[in-house]
Amino acid sequence: MSWKRKTAIGLVAAFGVLNLGALIGHLGNKPQTPQQVEIIYPPTGEYTSYTVTVNEDGSYTIDYRAHDPSLTTSETYTDSSNGAFGIGGRSTTTITRENIATLGGVVTDEGKLTAEQIECIKAVGGGESNGALVGGSIATGMAPLVSGIPYVGWLATGWLVMFGQDLGSDVGGQVASSIKGC
Questions:
Q1: Cα–Cα distances in angstroms (integers) from residue 111 to residues 69, 70, 116, 181, in the given order
Q2: Is it the case that residue 23 has pLDDT exceeding 70?
Q3: Where are the domains positioned within the chain?
């Protein structure tokens, strides 16, 4: 082998080793990017709460409560006079009640619905059920009118019956609610 060829192979090898070293050095000295913190916005509402705890190492925990009922207080003041004709001074009585606020309203201290609320729920549920039955029956009687539509008659018939049930349910619930006085 000639000295020119040996020199060319040596130069190419040296150039390759230097490029490989530069590539490894470049990858090893890659600048560190600052750690990004993901911002999370949990859904919030009137009865939600959350607490975010961030540790020194960058880890974090989220304590999220989707339905966190809170206590509401109501105070009633009664001002009365003592004795006959107001003789003997006046007294003020304060009654404080704590209730649990929920999505459906305020629950009494015992955590139970009142008898009136239960009767209203039953009445509206029964009215909606009967209304859906009547609405579906009326819509089924009208189904032959739309079943003859080419290609989509079967779909229109089903839609008509479902629409009749929904409409009957709404009307039945409203009628039962107004009759019960809810």
A1: 12, 13, 15, 23
A2: yes
A3: 1-32, 70-107, 115-180
